[in-house]
């Protein structure tokens, strides 16, 4: 095995998350390697978003540990936790842009909070990030309510990238985008991951994203990790759900791609 | 739609029955669609009511002009009830699309959800009462938790462990206080005038109309200026805070703040609460002055008490104590309004109905709490002899 495997940036060890008397995630073990794009799939209600929210601290966990770069998140003092929070960026499913701020102000916001930049420089960096995600200058002063779905996702991505994070968490980034928009978004994620050396944790249903962008895919089922590995492993799996997922009627173009490649 | 299909769609549904070699043949004709369903059902019932129950029944549809899911369901349902009586039912001579539709509807499983346990009618008021009481209890606990977070955020700012967001505070101060001045002044002026007018009419009976000045001074400064300002602020800003927080919650903006390492209490709530606490005493004072102005006008017009006399008497009637009583109550009421508005804002769940409900609750609860607090303060001040 090559050395890249041992460079784990995010590790989940026996993670347990539940609501009331229902355990949604019951003993999840997952290791995310530095620099990889990991796609997380699972049936509806399998806890993909719940896992994501538990990792970034929005949901309390009932058991297990979350380790970033080897450091257990529970054991860290407040300042160290804040330092780690600065190193990740999150793209929520609906974008979650601040509705009272313009796009430019949205992207500037994390920089205002965590960095001590002169205002002019901060604005330039924000414009840079917005351009990086493929939005033009006409979008800078628009409010989120004035943006289209694709633009909202891109603006939210620009905000997630504002502090040059090491890990990018994406929650169903291509949901609701037309095929062209989704393809462009996939391409953007791949390019940024390669050029900026990002690790990407992407919860998705989009088969095309999984094929085009992901280095490895992790499948969750029954609150635990079903299987993790590159696309070839997923395609070769015997598990009935994975067979349905990757060989079902919506995956027919995958077959073509495999055979046509 | 061509004229033929248009006419077919409304052709009268008809049912004719005849017996043929031991089989009851039920011939269906006309349009069996949603638009004719009522008549179709009646026709089917009428035709099959008088027939002797047969062992074998055949539905035919040669003359059927139009059929949709509703018409199919009528036929299938009747067929199933006949089968339940022991007959053997068949469909014949339907056009291929009609036959396919009948098969589709017949194959669709029709399960009803298990009935939810309903509380007996007589117990329902008690159930509602119990839930309301339990809800109040947990509501109080939640309110305490929110209060704690607000105070913790304030403490963090004082201890320089958090950023003091001055521009957010100024923004909120403008919205909550500055923009409320015209309406608070107007309202207090009018209420002051009304109260004074009625007081003069009564005090005249004792020849003591001049005492209306004392009454106005004490009332405006101690009670009315503050109460009107508090009610107006609860209505304007309490609802605004709840609606803003609620819709931010719905759009995951609060989550986005948290993952960016920003405490929503410091960034969003504290500027609003501080604006309320610092601003309501100012509004109360302005309201009191406006109330006195209203009293002066009415005294002149109705009571014949000139402005000089009014002012002269006012100087004697006013005391710093009256002013301070009003001003001490104001920050407490402002905090109550802020606390309730924040609490209700965080309770908003995903629907717009929920947003409306909690915004309403926020205004109603804060006005109620403010008036109750006023009553408690009145008792307290009486006890300490102020």
Order of strands, main sheet of chain A, comes to 6-7-8-3-9-10
Shape of chain B: elongated
Biggest β-sheet strands, sense, barrel of chain B = 4 strands, mixed
DSSP summary: helix tally of chain B:
13
Return residue spans of chain A where pLDDT drops below 50 for at least 5 consecutive residues.
none
Cα radius of gyration of chain A in angstroms = 19 Å
* Intertermini distance of chain A: 27 Å
Placed side by side, the strands forming the largest sheet of chain B appear as 1-2-3-4
Secondary-structure content class of chain B:
alpha/beta
Element string of chain B (H = helix, E = strand): HEEHEHEHHHHHHHHHH
Cα(first) to Cα(last) distance of chain B is 85 Å
> How much of the sequence of chain A is in beta strands?
15-25%
Q: Which short descriptors sum up this protein?
A:
heterodimer, A: 261 residues, alpha/beta, 10 helices, 10 strands, B: 386 residues, four-stranded mixed β-sheet
What does this structure look like?
Chain A contains 10 helices and 10 strands. Chain A is of the alpha/beta class and 261 residues long. Chain A folds into 2 domains: 1-87 and 166-261, 3-Layer(aba) Sandwich (Rossmann fold), CATH 3.40.50.300; 96-164, no CATH class. Chain A has a 6-stranded mixed beta sheet with strand order 6-7-8-3-9-10, with helices on both faces. In chain A, strands 2-1-4-5 form a 4-stranded antiparallel beta sheet, covered by helices on one side. In chain A, strand 4 and strand 5 form a beta hairpin. The longest helix of chain A has 18 residues, at 179-196. Chain A is globular. By secondary structure, chain B is of the alpha/beta class. Chain B has 13 helices and 4 strands. Chain B has helices spanning 3-9, 37-49, 69-84, 96-107, 124-158, 166-176, 181-203, 212-250, 253-259, 264-302, 307-317, 320-347, 352-383; strands at residues 14-20, 23-32, 56-67, 88-92. Chain B has a 4-stranded mixed beta sheet with strand order 1-2-3-4. The longest helix of chain B is centred in the middle third of the chain and has 39 residues, at 212-250. The termini of chain B are far apart. The model of chain B has no long low-confidence stretch (mean pLDDT 89). The chains are: A alpha/beta (261), B alpha/beta (386). Chain A binds chain B through residues 53, 56-58, 82, 85-86, 88, 90, 92-94, 96-99, 109-110, 113-114, and chain B through 163, 247-248, 251-253, 255-256, 258-262.
């Amino acid at each position: 095995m090559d050395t890249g495997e041992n460079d784990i940036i995010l590790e989940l060890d026996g993670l347990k998350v539940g609501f009331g008397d229902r355990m949604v995630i019951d003993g999840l073990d997952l290791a995310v390697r530095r620099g990889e794009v990991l796609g997380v799939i699972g049936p509806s209600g399998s806890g993909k978003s719940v896992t994501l929210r538990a990792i970034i601290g929005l949901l309390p966990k009932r058991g297990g540990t979350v380790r970033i770069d080897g450091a257990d998140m529970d054991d860290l003092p407040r300042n160290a936790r804040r330092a780690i929070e600065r190193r990740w960026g999150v793209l929520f499913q609906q974008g979650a842009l601040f509705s009272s701020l313009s796009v430019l102000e949205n992207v500037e916001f994390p920089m205002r909070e965590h960095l001590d930049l002169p205002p002019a420089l901060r604005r330039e960096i924000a414009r840079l990030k917005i351009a990086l995600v493929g939005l033009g200058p006409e979008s800078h002063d628009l409010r989120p309510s004035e943006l289209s779905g694709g633009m909202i996702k891109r603006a939210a991505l620009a905000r997630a990238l504002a502090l040059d994070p090491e890990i990018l968490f994406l929650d169903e980034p291509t949901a609701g985008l037309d095929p062209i928009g989704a393809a462009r978004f996939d391409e953007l994620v791949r390019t940024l991951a390669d050029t900026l050396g990002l690790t990407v944790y992407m919860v998705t249903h989009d088969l095309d994203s999984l094929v085009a962008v992901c280095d490895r895919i992790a499948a969750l089922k029954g609150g635990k990790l079903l299987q993790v590995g590159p696309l070839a492993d997923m395609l070769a799996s015997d598990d009935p759900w994975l067979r349905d997922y990757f060989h079902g009627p919506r995956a027919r173009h995958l077959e073509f791609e495999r055979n046509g490649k | 739609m061509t004229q033929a299909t248009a006419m077919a769609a409304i052709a009268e549904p008809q049912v004719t029955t005849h017996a043929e070699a031991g089989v009851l043949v039920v011939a269906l004709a006309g349009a069996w669609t949603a638009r004719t369903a009522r008549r179709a059902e009646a026709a089917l019932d009428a035709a099959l009511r008088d027939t002797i129950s047969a062992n074998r029944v055949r539905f035919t549809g040669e003359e059927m002009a139009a059929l949709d899911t509703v018409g199919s369901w009528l036929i299938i349902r009747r067929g199933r009830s006949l089968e339940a009586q022991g007959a053997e039912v068949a469909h014949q001579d339907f056009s291929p699309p009609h036959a396919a539709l009948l098969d589709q509807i017949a194959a669709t499983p029709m399960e009803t959800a298990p009935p939810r346990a309903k509380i007996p009618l007589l117990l329902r008021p008690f159930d509602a009462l119990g839930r309301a009481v339990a809800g109040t209890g947990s509501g109080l606990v939640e309110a305490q938790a929110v209060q704690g977070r607000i105070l913790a955020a304030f403490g963090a700012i004082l201890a320089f462990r958090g950023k003091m967001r001055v521009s957010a505070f100024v923004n909120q101060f403008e919205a909550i206080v500055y923009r409320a001045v015209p309406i608070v002044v107007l309202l207090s002026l009018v209420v002051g005038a009304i109260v004074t007018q009625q007081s003069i009419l009564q005090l005249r009976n004792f020849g003591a109309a001049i005492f209306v000045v004392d009454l106005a001074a004490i009332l405006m400064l101690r009670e009315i200026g503050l109460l009107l300002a508090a009610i107006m602020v609860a209505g304007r800003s309490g609802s605004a805070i709840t609606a803003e927080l609620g819709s931010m919650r719905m759009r995951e903006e609060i989550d986005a703040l948290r993952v960016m390492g920003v405490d929503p209490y410091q960034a969003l709530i504290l500027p609003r609460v501080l604006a309320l606490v610092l601003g309501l005493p100012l509004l109360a004072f302005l309201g009191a002055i406006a109330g006195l102005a209203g009293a002066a006008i009415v005294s002149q017009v109705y009571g014949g008490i000139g402005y000089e006399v009014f002012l002269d008497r006012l100087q004697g009637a006013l005391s710093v104590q009256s002013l301070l009583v009003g001003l001490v109550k104001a920050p407490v009421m402002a905090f109550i309004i802020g606390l309730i508005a924040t609490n209700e804002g965080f309770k908003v769940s995903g629907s717009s109905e929920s947003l409306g409900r909690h915004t309403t609750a926020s205004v109603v609860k804060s006005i109620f709490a403010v008036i109750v607090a006023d009553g408690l303060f009145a008792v307290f001040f009486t006890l300490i002899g102020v």
